Amino acid sequence: MKIIGVKRIKSAVFLGLFGISIAVAQPAKLAIVIDDIGYHQKEDAQVYALPKEISVAIIPSAPHARQRNEQAHKQGRDILIHMPMQPLGKQRIEAGGLRLGMRQEEVQQRVQTAKEIVSHAIGMNNHMGSAATSDVDLMRKLMQELKAQHLFFLDSRTIGRSVAGNIAKDYGVKSLERHIFLDDKDTYADIERQFQRAVHYAQKHGTAIAIGHPRQQTIAALQAGLKKLPENVQLVGMGRLWRNEKVDLAKPFNLLFNDIPAPTSILPYQSVPMLRGVPE
Question: CA 154, 155, 157 angle in degrees (round to 5)?
């Protein structure tokens, strides 16, 4: 086994010397979005202390929305508008949210207002919205506005019969959907288990999108889990997925050669002892 290993190393060096490239498997991509940003100073600060590849979804009507928008932008962190949308239940939604039966002008005004507040957003995902994302009429109106604002869409999948993705495609809006919820249950053990599910999903399918919230147990589980992320899984921002960018691989070792010609290649040729084949 040791001999084989040496041969492989020699082969790799040989390929590198002669500029021969070989295909390298792309790592799986794991994207994590933290929703409900903009309400709580302490928890938001802990989220913003996590790697910048973790995306944040900011509720436009939250008291610290504008501040969080600017802070994330300075960090180079991907930002989403976490748009309140009507659920099937009777839960109240925040001001500026989307409801069934709205006219196109109302949807337009609310999307534009949200984009003005969360000005550095590259996309939008739904806050609640089990009724909204399963309503064809509202989703058509929304996707028309997202197209105009050059925003992507992430379907949080709060309902199985969502039509958002299909309608986004009809309007030429790039969309993706959530695979794993990290913190449906607010216990460390459960969140840790969901994080591992997300990692395994990424390894199996090539990509996984997980959504969590700015809670103490979620932050603690992410802090621990990200330190032990497998080498074949790379944490990426949502923008990398929407733009379908390849993940960064380790840069190959490059040998640098002097570009000054060797003396024996410059006219007039001169004989050099111990060298053969040098013209007189």
Answer: 150
Output the pTM of the full model: 0.81
Tokens representing 90? 């009777």
Enumerate domains of the chain plus CATH numbers: 28-242 (3.20.20.370)
Structure tokens at 198: 């997300």
Banded model confidence at residue 246, pLDDT cuts 50, 70, 90: confident
Cβ neighbours of 186 (radius 10 Å): 12
Q: For residue 26, name the pLDDT band (cuts at 50, 70, 90).
A: confident
Contacts of residue 218, Cβ cutoff 8 Å, sequence gap at least 6: 34, 182, 183, 186, 191, 212
Orientation of helix 216-227 relative to helix 41-48, angle to 10° = 10
